[in-house]
Design goal:
420 residues; alpha/beta; Rossmann fold; Dihydrodipicolinate Reductase, domain 2; seven-stranded mixed beta sheet; six-stranded parallel beta sheet; globular
Length: 420
Amino acid sequence: MSHWSATVSEQLGVGIVGSGFIANFHVQSWLGVRHADITGIASPNRDSAEALADRARALGVGDPTTTDDVAALARDPRVDAIWITVPNHVRVEVVERICEEVASGRAQLRGIAIEKPLARTVAEAKRIVEAVEGAGLLGGYLENQVFAPALTRAQEIIWKRGAALAGNPYLARCAEEHSGPHRAWFWDGRRQGGGVLSDMMCHSVEAGRALLTPPGGDKSSWLTPLSVSATIAGLKWTRERYAAKLAETYPGEVDYRNHPAEDFARATITFRNGDGELVVAEGTTSWSFVGAGLRLTFELLGPEYSLQVNSLDTPAKIFLSRELRGEQGEDLVEKQNAEQGLMPLIEDEALTYGYTDENRHMVEAFRAGRQPRETLREGLAVTELLMAAYLSAEQGETVSLPTDLTDFVPQVAQGTWQQG
């Protein structure tokens, strides 16, 4: 069991496992996080770990040590909590190793926070939950979108001024779309656990659940899932030209001619809410959206009101003429697809996408010794809905819930899926 003894007034030392794209987002977000420093980084890639540590120092958010041993990170007396950002296929191994250190008494940690999706399957998600709870640790599910300020503020107002007067909302629509991931393992259904449904529908599902639940309420208590209907497809990246491009970009690692993964998914989830009413969450997600960059959209409909959020409806835009031919980059918006024309500019992506408020919340929960709003069991609930969506897509019919999906592994994750 953990014997962490710091008081609420003390700084929380946070270690990060992983040093890739999302780890960098977390470090950037720490500019808006108080009462915690980044004190350690563990990654098998020592160069990227050192680069991430240098960035933390440059931002003034910590002076982290680096190691390639997660157990050593857990034992570091400067580390009180650990954020897990490693690829999906090594997630269970890493979490269980840290929890072994805590359970044995060799490490004293307060909590562990784990990036979305929690796991590739329900079985893996259950192993993670059991390991963390068995070690006596607090557990946070790092689902940034439910902490996005535009979403949380709009939700607060619509429930106060709309739902309180006209009744509960009944339809949430959430979408995340961009042109594709940055690393080979994301494209590999076997390592990632699927395609875009696994990678990004987790966001849309949890955002939909949050919007349909009163602010501050317990989603799993308020919403009882009744059924899931879903479709997956390869719309862009399974075409010969783009499959060849993936093979060229990631030689020997990604083969969409023989082992494709879906780049489009949609799911409709029907719930019964705490007042006995039927409500619906619709999620759409895509790696085949070519626009200014990453686009997050949210809608909530109720009897006499509605809510809309679009991350690309920014207050700032810039224009660059065709005469300007600069280097490719993502300095305006994540997954930026152009460097010319009229472009939206997201002034603080870590804040806009929810990372800042997410990390602030996790830090304060761990410091106070309480479970955060997004627990690992919420991550497990999302995994169960994702697996129901994959099963529905494979069977071509609606899946009724509850159903035991512990042993289910999607065809995409097995590397056997072929588009019909």
